[in-house]
Sequence to fold (269 residues):
Amino acid sequence: MKILILILKGVAIGIAMLVPGVSGGTMAIILGVYDDLIHSVSSFFKDIKKNFIFLFYIAIGGIIGVLAFSKLIEYALDNFRYPTMYFFIGIVIGGIPVLYQKVDNSKGQVKNWLYFGLGFIIVLVMSIYNGTIVNLANSTGVLQFIFLFIAGIVISVALILPGISTSFMLLVLGMYDITIKAINNLYVSYLAPIAIGLAFGIIATTKILEHAMKKKPSQTYMLILGFVTGSIIPVFPGLPEKTYEIVISAAVLVIGFVVIRIISKKFAD
Fold:
């Protein structure tokens, strides 16, 4: 049963990674496995068997979530954009109380909110960034491999750091659509270098993040909370033109909020 729960949590994290504006790291916090994930990676060689088993089941679930739901999410975004995006926003908002519970505002409350503001501004800057990135994802050979490897490292920061959506980072890099397509069609030559870059980036950054969580937990979580709150703005698709779409969108936003609150209370332990 414990194994099944770990796999299901991995599935939820994998699905969250596909959704622009929803962070897989935030989902891991909501499900109560984030600290264990960070510790298992950063201290992998201290207890190889235990850490490998834990990471293996989470990874299996994550792969299942990505492969099983990538087509569904792509279809929903193409055909029901407003309700889908409002559902995602409901999920993001529903995760905010979980993050705030991690913050101790009894000391240095003003300082903590400065970290929140910093996180909020960083996400907004990322969302309006329109610099010309030469997209080499469609090239071939060594050049493509190097580009995708570096992209994987950049994406790993979003994967490890809660509040920054992996899919949002792909959007910033101009790689979201092609990556979803690659997943749906299992383009190994495209996905493999990204996966290698992800693994390299994760190993390189987990120690830093674990240290921050231990030394300045409240400030770190307020920074993350700023990321999460800021991500709502670029994800917001505007108001639908038709009245019935507004009603449906509002309803699914509430559903998304309620679902994530139930999940956070029932399955975080």
The chain has twelve helices and no strands.
